[in-house]
């Protein structure tokens, strides 16, 4: 028991390293605030692209989406980070992370939003268009609000995944929460910072997990 | 060197490909083994947990929800690093392969439990009542009436989730498992050339593009009726 406290919940160690961990949290939050909206916008473009029902465009989008859904995000990240310097582009870690995660998350969001848009009946389109509003207006004011509600659980679940992905950025030495935790562990030679990192992730993400469960339950009740 | 030549030299160098193909293929086997163990154990454990949860024992259900929530909330890389770098300090020592297998199995089982549980809930109460009134026991009703209907509804989310978690085996490179990505990383270091990473990417795409395409077919076949 004493060994457990000494190694996992060592207050002295925690006091020494908490400024580092706070810096890590800040970087993780910055990553989330940039990665999630950009990925979502990319996905929106993909889904709207689909809705034109142009055969060539659709084939292209399916290739894009399936290609990046098949690519493990960590592999994509390492490829972008170590590969870009060889083609003469020196990108900082933060940008490499953005590029890699954009490719990954936009394809997932795109697939989810496409399913949402396709779940809305043809009649909604026809009714909206017959009132005289344009294609894009119909999309943004009539179709998307309903579509997003239909796929709200999937959107939430994907957002949760994206936030969890940001921990992968530690592999390319971006000083986010996990990376700072590992550095702190190295300095103190005590795993308390790692446990603290796990608890911080839990504190950030558990509410989202609970919210997701409730959302899913509500959809289930509606479907019955 | 022209730009095209430079790309060819750095990403598709034939000599490097020839030299490191065997180690990438070794990595491929490790990845496939790891993935297989994770998928089998994760699916079985997840189904088991969902069945236990359907007995509605309050204390056990709280415990299941608690554990499942933790493994759904934590990033897999954090779980692996805690298991690999923190647990030895309290006397629990596991090899990288075991750590990767255990972490991802627990993560997959947690998601699978939630998916199956949602499936069980989605079967109408009348089905339970009808089955029980014909004289079937609780367990028989669950196995012969409810689960067959529930599983059908859960196939699309199950395939998607399984693919996502299997892709996470690449994270095992962080805990020194010699799978595709870590073999490629080592080869990249030795050769000072990104070609091994291209090879790794192609290896992953060879495994996962058929799976993603298959999930697309499954999704339209088992689509939820709206």
Descriptive keywords:
heterodimer; A: 224 residues; mainly alpha; MetI-like fold; B: 226 residues; 9 helices; 81% helix; elongated
Structure, explained:
The complex is a heterodimer of chains A (224) and B (226). Chain A has 224 residues and is mainly alpha-helical. Chain A has one domain (2-223): MetI-like fold (Orthogonal Bundle). Chain A has helices at 2-8, 11-50, 55-70, 73-83, 93-118, 122-130, 135-150, 152-165, 177-188, 192-223. The longest helix of chain A is centred in the first third of the chain and has 40 residues, at 11-50. Chain B has nine helices and no strands. Chain B has a single domain (22-221), classed as Orthogonal Bundle (MetI-like fold), CATH 1.10.3720.10. In chain B, 81% of the residues lie in helices and 0% in strands. Chain B has helices spanning 3-11, 14-54, 58-73, 76-86, 96-122, 125-133, 138-167, 180-191, 195-221. In chain B, helix 3 (58-73) crosses helix 5, helix 4 packs across helix 5 and helix 5 (96-122) crosses helix 7. Chain B has 226 residues and is mainly α.
Overall helicity of chain A: over 70%
Strand content of chain B: under 5%
Q: What is the CATH class of chain A?
A: Mainly Alpha
Structural class of chain A: mainly alpha
Q: Name the assembly state.
A: heterodimer
CATH architectural group of chain A: Orthogonal Bundle
CATH class of chain B: Mainly Alpha
CATH names the topology of chain A as: MetI-like fold
Main structural class of chain B: mainly alpha
The total of helices of chain A stands at 10
- Here the CATH topology of chain B equals MetI-like fold
Q: How many separate domains make up the residues of chain B?
A: 1
Number of helices, where a helix is a run of at least 4 consecutive DSSP H or I residues of chain B: 9
The poorly predicted ranges of chain B are: none
Distance between the termini of chain A: 49 Å
Per CATH, the superfamily of chain A is MetI-like
CATH architecture of chain B: Orthogonal Bundle
Radius of gyration of chain B: 22 Å
Sum up the overall morphology of chain A in one term. Answer: globular
């Amino acid at each position: 028991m004493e060994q457990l406290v000494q190694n996992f919940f060592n207050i002295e160690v925690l006091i020494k390293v908490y400024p580092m961990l706070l810096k890590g949290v800040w970087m993780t939050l910055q990553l989330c605030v940039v990665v999630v909206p950009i990925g979502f916008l990319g996905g929106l473009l993909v889904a709207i692209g689909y809705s034109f029902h142009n055969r060539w465009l659709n084939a292209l989008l399916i290739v894009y989406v399936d290609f990046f859904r098949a690519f493990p995000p960590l592999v994509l990240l390492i490829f972008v980070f170590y590969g870009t310097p060889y083609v003469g582009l020196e990108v900082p870690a933060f940008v490499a992370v953005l590029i890699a995660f954009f490719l990954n998350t936009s394809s997932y969001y795109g697939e989810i939003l496409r399913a949402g848009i396709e779940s809305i009946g043809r009649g909604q389109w026809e009714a909206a268009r017959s009132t005289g509003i344009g294609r894009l207006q119909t999309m943004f004011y009539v179709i998307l609000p309903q579509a997003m509600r239909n796929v709200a659980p999937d959107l939430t679940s994907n957002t949760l995944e994206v936030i969890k992905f940001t921990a992968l950025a530690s592999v390319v030495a971006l000083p986010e929460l996990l990376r700072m935790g590992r550095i702190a562990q190295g300095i103190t030679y005590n795993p308390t910072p790692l446990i603290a990192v796990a608890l911080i992730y839990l504190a950030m993400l558990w509410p989202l997990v609970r919210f997701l469960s409730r959302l899913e339950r509500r959809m289930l009740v509606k479907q019955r | 060197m022209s730009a095209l030549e430079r790309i060819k030299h750095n990403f598709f160098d034939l000599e490097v490909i020839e030299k490191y193909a065997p180690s990438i293929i070794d990595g491929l086997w490790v990845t496939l083994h790891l993935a297989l163990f994770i998928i089998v154990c994760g699916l079985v454990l997840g189904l088991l947990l969902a069945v236990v949860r359907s007995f509605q024992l309050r204390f056990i259900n709280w415990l299941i929800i608690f554990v499942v929530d933790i493994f759904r909330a934590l990033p897999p890389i954090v779980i692996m690093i805690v298991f690999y770098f923190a647990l030895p300090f309290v006397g629990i020592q596991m090899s990288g392969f075991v750590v990767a297998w255990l972490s991802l199995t627990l993560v997959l089982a947690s998601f699978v439990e939630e998916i199956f549980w949602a499936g069980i809930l989605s079967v109408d109460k009348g089905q339970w009542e009808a089955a029980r009134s014909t004289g079937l026991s609780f367990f028989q009703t669950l196995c012969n009436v409810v689960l067959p209907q529930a599983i059908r509804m859960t196939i699309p989310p199950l395939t998607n989730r399984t693919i996502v978690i299997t892709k996470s085996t690449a994270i095992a490179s962080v805990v020194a498992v010699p799978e595709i990505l870590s073999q490629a990383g080592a080869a990249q270091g030795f050769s000072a050339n990104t070609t091994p990473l291209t090879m790794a990417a192609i290896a992953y795409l060879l495994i996962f593009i058929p799976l993603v395409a298959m999930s697309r077919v499954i999704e339209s076949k088992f689509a939820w009726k709206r």
